[in-house]
Structures are given as C-alpha cells and as structure tokens.
Amino acid sequence: MKKTGGGGGGGSGTGGTSGDKKRGRRSYVDTATDAPPRKQAAKKDIFQIFAEKVRDHKDLESRWAILQETRVEYFRGKDFVKFLSNHPELKDVLESDKNLETEDIANILLRKNLTVRCDRVVKTIRPGKRKLSTWPAHLEIFSDQVFSDNDAFFAWTFVKRQPLWQTLLSFSWPVVALAICLFPVYPHQVKLLILYFCAGVLLLIFCLLLLRAFVFGALWIVLGKRIWFFPNILAEEATLKELFQFLPKKDEGERPKWTARLFFALVSVLVILLLRHHAPDEAARARYQKKVSNIIDDVLEWSPRLALSAMMEKQTVLNTTASGENVTDASNISTQNITQANDGEGVILPDQYEEELEPVEHPDR
C-alpha cells in the first residue's frame, strides 16, 4: 500500500511535474509566439524615429516637388549615403540594427512605407540645356521600389511633425486678419507707421528684383553666363531658408551666341534711350506727387464718424434737390396752364381757375 501510495504519490508528483513542464512549455511557446509581433512593432517605432531624425536633420539636402498632384519633400539616394557616412551616430537609434548597411536601412524604410522611390517625369534634355535638372520639380512613382544611389529620388511619405511655434502662429492668423480689417479706425500715427512700413517692404522687393535682373542681363551680355542672385526668391515651392539663399545656381545651359548677346545689348540701349526721352518733367512729377498725396491723405484721414457725416450731408442735399425739383415742376405746370388759357380759345379750365377768372363786381358800380 505504501509502495502503491508512494508510487501513486510519485506518479502524481511525476504527473504534476510533467504537467508543470507542459504548462511551462506552453507558456514558453506562447511567449515565443507573442515576441515577434512585439519585436516587429518595436522595430517599426524605431525606424519611424530614425526616419524623423534623418528628415529633421539640416545636413540632408532635400527639395520639394509635385508627386501625382501632391507636394512632397524628397532627397537623392547619393545624398542619403553620404549623409549616413558623415553622421553614423544617428544609427544608434536603431539599437540592434545599427550595424546594418546604408542600403539595407534604406530598403527597410521603403518596405515600411516611410519612403517611396520616385523618378523624374521629364527624362529628356530640354533645348538649351546640357544635362537633366539636378532637382526636378515633378516626380512620378518608380516601378522598382529598391534603393539605389544612381540618379534615384526618394520622397518621405509620413507627415512631418509640426513645431510648437508653427501651431501658435496658426492661431494668430485670425487676430492678424481682424487687425487688418480694423485699420481704418487706427490712430493717425499708427496708420502712417503701417503705410511707410508696407511701402518700404514693397520698394525693397522691387529694387531687389530690378537689381538681380540688371546683374543677370549685364553678366549675360558681357560674359555670356546666366547668374541669378537670390535664385529662389520667386519660387513657389521653396522653404524660408531656401527663399533667402544668396548664392546663385550653377549655369547648366549652353553658352549663348554672340549675335544674340549683341542683339539684346542694342535692344537694352534703345529701351533706355526711349525711357529717358519720355521721362516726365519736374512739373508733371510734382502734379503726380500732389495727386498721390491727396489720395493717401483721404485714406489715412478716413473714420466712421466722417463717413456717417458725409452720408448724412449727401442725404440732405438729395432731399433739398428733390423738394426744389417738385416746386419747380408745380410752377411750370401752373404757368403752362395759364398760358394756354390766355392764348387758346374754347379751352376748358378747371373749376378753381374758373372761380379765379370770374369778374369781380364793385359796389360803386
């Protein structure tokens, strides 16, 4: 009995141990099955953080372009390779995958839809150009989504995180719009300050455009080179940093012919002489300045009180004119009737005129 009991106890103990082992194996299997999704999720978050850090870094050169009617930010494959070789510390974000090659990291970004490979829409050299544009303005999705550093472009597919100052700036736009609408009720000195500031900004922009056009024309005629200072000042898809870039772009076109340069030089001289001949004299300039000053004074001195008083004066003048016209019409009608009565025979007069025309009997007669 004891043996049996012991055997039973041993059997139950063995059975319990095997059950624990099975449960332990089952729990281990469950943990093993749950581990890969968590690991993949962690990897996805890591690569998302890595992509955001790379995109926000100022050393990775990028541009904006139109991809299937969508404005995207893109970079070149060779710039991505050069960037990671110069900044290997960014790979530390990838933890266990930080030893991967640049090509493997780029392919993982493509598989996770953090980037998409693009190709230029215009694949032929335009007339007057020696090579294709370095940064095309229009892109299309490439068929083979594999990383390459040979004339390959990659666009970011995720939305860039908006800085706090941009969020605060977006809330200030309604206040700015309301302040612009309230400009007529500003004090006179504030109006003058705003007017001179806006006029100064516009004058600066026009002078800058004229200066860069003059420099471009002079260098193109004299040296045969196309040099634009502030090359992105008229660009519609440039960032604030690119907008005020002073250095000119490289001349990618062919050297112009001397006949074309000579022709435009003669045209420029003729235009300058024509403008000088038809320039306004001092009297005309003074008249124009006086006219503009009167317009500016009317705008600056406007106020709701003056507007209401002007409207009331206008209404009073209209009422006075209307009443005067009524009196004039009535007198004209009376005069016309009396004239007809005197000149015409057999004219039937109204009763009131008959009473007025009856002879008056004098008591002496």
TrEMBL record:
GO terms for cellular component: endoplasmic reticulum membrane. GO terms for biological process: post-translational protein targeting to membrane, translocation. InterPro entries: Sec62. Residues 1-18 have a biased composition (Gly residues). It is a multi-pass membrane protein. Residues 1-40 are annotated as: Disordered. Signal peptide: none annotated. Keywords: Endoplasmic reticulum, Membrane, Protein transport, Translocation, Transmembrane, Transmembrane helix, Transport. The chain crosses the membrane at residues 164-186, 193-223, 258-275. The keyword Transmembrane helix applies. It is found in: Endoplasmic reticulum membrane. Belongs to the SEC62 family. This is Translocation protein SEC62.
